[in-house]
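User: I've been trying to design a sequence by hand for this structure and keep getting stuck. Would you show me what you'd pick, starting by listing the structure so we're on the same page?

Assistant: Good idea, let's start from the same input. This is the structure you sent:
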């Protein structure tokens, strides 16, 4: 019991002790500090040591600087680490070390009716972000090597239940955007041939691969899967000019998914002029007893009133009533 109490006291001391040492400064203080010629000179020297991979010398130099200047210098050199061509084991170790540190200087600024407090120089957060991007790059390089040697098993490599699934997914998406047409074709065949990919927890990789390859087979699979932000984003971009025939075909195909159907039909109705195949598709939708009126109303709202009035001379029954009701609900 005494030991637990002692540990609790130590925990609270560490927690509140770290907070109490924080120093709050104003945005003007930060701007003045950055503009100081001495600051510029010191940071230039720090970046020179960093670029030369002289990490022990850099750490010694940083330790000699005033703390606010040290935090700014750490932020600057951390951002330079995004140039992965200069990444070394020493730099990686340096980034890991500072990613666990706590910036001392905070900036408090007023927003629209509220106050925001954040690190003046968030070098620790930036270091974590750089390390995250570095790991994604390494994973992407690994996937690319396996793909080149015909040894990539998508579902196995992505490992859906693993803690690093998100990193692996982002690595593959990044890789897809840089692959040659031949490599993309190989990856498409791998995806379509791997039935375990049906268990993928999201559509991110499929959406990226379909967009990059423009494969009708991949698009069809995307529309059949459970809708998420990735598939919604692919469909949303379909009506961005210039709209190709494939875009039109895929907007029509996406209506097989009940969640995507309303968005796809709205996009199709927004086309000007309406292509003949879109007219044929929408006319069939207008004939639906349950939603035909709402689609006719949508078309009238989107500026296709003349076409709807022309249709009145050609159709009858439910389709005619839906068009009449749709036109009546949108006064010219």
């Amino acid at each position: 019991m005494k030991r637990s109490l002692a540990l609790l006291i130590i925990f609270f001391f560490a927690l509140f002790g770290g907070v109490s040492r924080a120093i709050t400064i104003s945005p003007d203080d930060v701007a003045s500090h950055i503009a100081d010629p001495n600051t510029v000179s010191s940071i230039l020297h720090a970046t020179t040591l960093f670029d030369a991979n002289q990490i022990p010398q850099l750490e010694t130099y940083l330790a000699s600087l005033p703390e606010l200047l040290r935090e700014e210098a750490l932020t600057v050199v951390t951002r330079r680490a995004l140039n992965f061509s200069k990444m070394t084991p020493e730099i990686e170790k340096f980034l890991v070390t500072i990613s666990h540190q706590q910036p001392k200087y905070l900036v408090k600024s007023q927003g629209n009716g509220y106050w925001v407090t954040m690190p003046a120089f968030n070098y620790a957060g930036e270091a974590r972000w750089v390390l995250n991007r570095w790991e994604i790059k390494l994973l992407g390089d690994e996937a690319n090597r396996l793909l080149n040697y015909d040894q990539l098993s998508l579902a196995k490599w992505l490992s859906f239940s693993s803690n690093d699934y998100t990193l692996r997914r982002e690595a593959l998406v990044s890789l897809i955007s840089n692959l040659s047409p031949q490599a993309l074709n190989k990856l498409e065949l791998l995806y379509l041939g791997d039935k375990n990919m049906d268990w993928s927890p999201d559509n991110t990789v499929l959406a990226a691969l379909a967009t990059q390859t423009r494969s009708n087979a991949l698009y069809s699979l995307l529309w059949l899967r459970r809708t998420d932000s990735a598939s919604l984003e692919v469909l949303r971009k379909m009506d961005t000019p210039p709209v190709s025939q494939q875009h039109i075909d895929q907007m029509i195909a996406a209506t097989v998914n009940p969640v995507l159907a309303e968005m796809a039909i709205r996009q199709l109705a927004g086309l000007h002029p309406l292509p003949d195949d879109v007219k044929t598709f929408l006319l069939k939708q207008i004939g639906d007893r349950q939603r035909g009126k709402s689609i006719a109303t949508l078309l009238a709202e989107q500026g296709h009133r003349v076409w709807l009035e022309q249709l009145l001379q050609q159709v009858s029954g439910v389709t005619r009533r839906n068009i009449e009701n749709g036109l009546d609900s949108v006064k010219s």
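That's my pick for every position. To get oriented when you compare it with your attempt: The first helix runs from residue 2 to 20. Strands lie at 23-25, 105-110, 115-119.
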